[in-house]
């Protein structure tokens, strides 16, 4: 594997995802041993080669000899394309670059809510994009609703099978309900909280997939599926507590988050 020598990638030290893939570049030899540095340190001093805010929004790859700087998806394409030249034509295909730049922006602008970490409020932070946050909330809500709709069939007759849109309404209703609560309680944390909340829901939905897959091959009793569902709900509850602490939010949002779920569960069982 060919190493892209003489380049340094500026990653977000507060972003676990950024730390992982930049470490992977070093570990696999795609960048040399000194080929990464946290932008929090580099941008703290004089660095005329790099657009400070853009480097925070989009990972920067700096040629330490010429001063050339690539940002975002082009940085990743340069590193990966150097290691795997076979991808060169694809990485030079403009429609593909455009599409992947949108995917990259979607992940980058939501990275703080996908995998959160303690944030230094005094450090320079990524620009907030309402468009990408709303898109994230919409896509995660639809995905969670889709998975829950299929999982609900495996809980019958313990839980009534509702209309095809029931789980979608539950997910969107939760965003609306908690959005109102957090707007009244901590409006400045509204979009951070909602993004984290839907990341928890999305992660919980993914944990249901193994049981759905298992159900394709063997008959799993509804009681077992219900126990798995409750175990996932318990993990989600613990993760909600952890994330609200990272956001410096109190117990109110955790209480209302759980109350919403309990109320819906009782309502569904009552209608059954």
From TrEMBL:
It comes from the Bacteria. The keyword Transmembrane helix applies. Keywords: Membrane, Transmembrane, Transmembrane helix. The chain crosses the membrane at residues 134-153, 197-214, 220-238, 250-271. This is DUF393 domain-containing protein. It comes from Mucilaginibacter mali.
């Amino acid at each position: 594997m060919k190493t892209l020598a003489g380049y340094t990638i500026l990653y977000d030290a507060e972003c676990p995802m950024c730390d992982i893939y930049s470490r992977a570049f070093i570990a696999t030899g795609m960048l040399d041993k000194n080929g990464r540095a946290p932008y929090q340190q580099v941008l703290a001093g004089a660095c005329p080669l790099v657009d400070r805010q853009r480097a925070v929004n989009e990972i920067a790859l700096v040629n330490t000899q010429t001063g050339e700087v690539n940002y975002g998806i082009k940085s990743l394409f340069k590193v990966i394309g150097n290691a795997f030249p076979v991808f060169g034509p694809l990485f030079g295909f403009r429609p593909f670059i455009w599409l992947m730049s949108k995917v990259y922006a979607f992940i980058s602008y939501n990275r703080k809510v996908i995998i959160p970490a303690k944030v230094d409020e005094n450090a320079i932070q990524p620009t907030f994009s309402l468009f990408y946050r709303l898109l994230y909330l919409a896509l995660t809500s639809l995905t969670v609703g889709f998975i829950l709709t299929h999982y609900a069939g495996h809980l019958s007759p313990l839980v009534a099978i509702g209309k095809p849109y029931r789980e979608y309404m539950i997910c969107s209703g939760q965003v609306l309900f908690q959005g109102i609560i957090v707007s009244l309680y901590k409006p400045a944390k509204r979009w951070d909280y909602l993004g984290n909340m839907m990341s928890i829901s999305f992660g919980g939905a993914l944990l249901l997939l193994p049981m759905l897959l298992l159900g394709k091959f063997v008959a799993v009793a509804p009681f077992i599926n219900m126990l798995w569902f409750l175990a996932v709900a318990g993990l989600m509850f613990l993760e909600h507590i952890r994330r609200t602490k990272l956001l410096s939010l109190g117990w109110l949002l955790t209480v209302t988050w759980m109350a919403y779920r309990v109320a819906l569960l009782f309502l569904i069982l009552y209608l059954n």
